[in-house]
Amino acid sequence: MHIFEILYHEFVGFWGFDQLWEIIQTQNYEALLTQKGIQAFLRPVLPVLLLIEIIRGLFYRRYSHDQYKISVFTYILNRFISSFLSIAMVAFCIGLFEPYALIKTSFTWYWFIYGYVVWELAHFVYHYFGHKVRLFWCLHSTHHAPEYMNLSVTYAHFFLEAPYADIIRTTICILLGVNPPLLFLIMFIDGTWGSFIHIGENLLKDGRLGVLNKIILTPSHHRVHHARNPLYMDTNFCNLLNIWDRAFGTLQDEKTTMEIEYGISRPMKKGDFLDAYFGEIVALGKDVYRAPGLKNKLLYIIMPPGWSHTGDHKTATVVKAHYIREHQQELSFDERV
Ligand SMILES: [Zn+2]
Ligand SMILES: [Zn+2]
């Protein structure tokens, strides 16, 4: 295919208007009431919101090229590799584990609720280990590297993260009996909401969404998740329902008194795409190389980021505990106001 044709298809594909356009051209508006139709309608929402976010940023002179650079480069690279790998992994896990499913479910509303709760658990597991196992953090940290929050961050992922996430999520869901058509519907809803919660302050100043902040996981919660403030680190791992964050004690509301600092705690080269993409792998490689003995080398790979063979740990748990000890008075005052 001609290079311009490829670029044209990529451009059209990014906006996600193709299916909607087909419905309009064939005037088959009834299709909009089907699951496929609703998906066709929702797909362009995120890219359009992203465009509005950039335009608003430009209008209010808050737009900076650096806020989008890393995410855009990552999106382009991933476009060609990761989506293909991820779909293959989902199909592979379904085929492999479906015969061993503990129960059988069907495409009904009550199994949908069951499926969603199971999906959130599976998402929690993948995401939790993405933060707590250094090797998996290498895959997930690219998503946390941007030092701003906007809708483009939803595209910032290391290319091996999607297959890693999908192996864990699909395996858990299939083993717990979520049937594949239900799983695909849940994946679509999860993907759409998972993108929306990256909406930036330029477009939605207060991400709490009113009373919804008490019930579901809102953009505000996900902003907290992307923060490197000690109190906010390693919290809010869920995506839409925050039940598992509640169950495991990792739910953290945004404090009005604490401004969010986005990014990871490792000092990064500002706006450097390669550092955002490969920086954690390089850092892990160096630690493994320098560590004395095979046991320490292995521990660097499986222990949480910040673990040190010298005992001088800088893990999120240690940093947070230290911060809480130092700021006990302010924090208990915050609780009261
Ligand atoms: Zn994360
Ligand atoms: Zn995110």
UniProtKB/TrEMBL annotation:
Database matches in Pfam families: FA_hydroxylase
Membrane topology: Multi-pass membrane protein
GO molecular function, one term: iron ion binding
Gene Ontology CC annotation, any one: endomembrane system
Domain spans labelled Fatty acid hydroxylase: 113-250
InterPro entries to which the protein is assigned, alphabetical: Fatty_acid_hydroxylase, Sterol_desaturase/TMEM195
Compartment(s): Endomembrane system
Top-level division of the source organism's lineage: Bacteria
GO biological process: lipid biosynthetic process; membrane lipid metabolic process
Residues annotated as transmembrane: 41-60, 72-97, 109-129
Keywords, alphabetical: Lipid metabolism, Membrane, Oxidoreductase, Transmembrane, Transmembrane helix
Protein name: Fatty acid hydroxylase
